[in-house]
Amino acid sequence: MNYDDDTMNHSMDLRRESIRKTIKPITLAELKQLGEKQFPIVTDPWCVKYFDFLAKHPDDKFYQATSAEGARVIYGRDAGQGVWFLPGGGMGILQPKGLQALKEIVATL
User: Fold this and answer.
1) Across 27-38, average pLDDT
2) For the chain, what are the domain ranges?
3) Could you identify which of 23, 26, 66, 82 might form a hypothetical disulfide with 75, taking C-beta atoms 3.0 to 4.6 angstroms apart as the criterion?
């Protein structure tokens, strides 16, 4: 195993542990309030994607957590999808490895 593989595995382990410790359910209303704070400009493409996702999955069971790096993670259990964002910073769609980790963590709740 080379250094890069070890570092990536260690980072993922730290993220999983942080998420496991901080994960909790969040309501659709709370997610909407969070989105309004995170995306004050309604024409922001991420704002549109975020609220479209909520509109498409209004009955989903949502969870929020915080990663070891301080990113907020939002996960929709039924849709099997989610996003991460740094308050006041970047945002992205959760990738398969992260989604699988969240699925496993939520299954233990």
Assistant:
1) 93
2) 3-107
3) 82
Which residues neighbour 4 within 8 Å (Cβ) at sequence distance 6 or greater?
none
Long-range contacts of 35-43 (CB under 8 A, 24+ apart): 38/85, 38/87, 38/91
The beta strands (E) that lie in the chain are given as 24-26, 62-66, 72-76, 81-85, 91-93
Tokens of 83: 């996003």
Could you tell me which of 49, 75, 80, 81 has the C-alpha nearest to residue 62? 75
| Residues contacting 24, CB < 8 A, separation 6+ | 63, 64, 65
* This prediction's pTM: 0.83
Half-sphere exposure of 33 (CA within 13 A, CB side): 5
- Judged by DSSP in three states, 84 sits in strand
**Rounded-to-integer distance, Cα 30 and Cα 33, Å:** 5
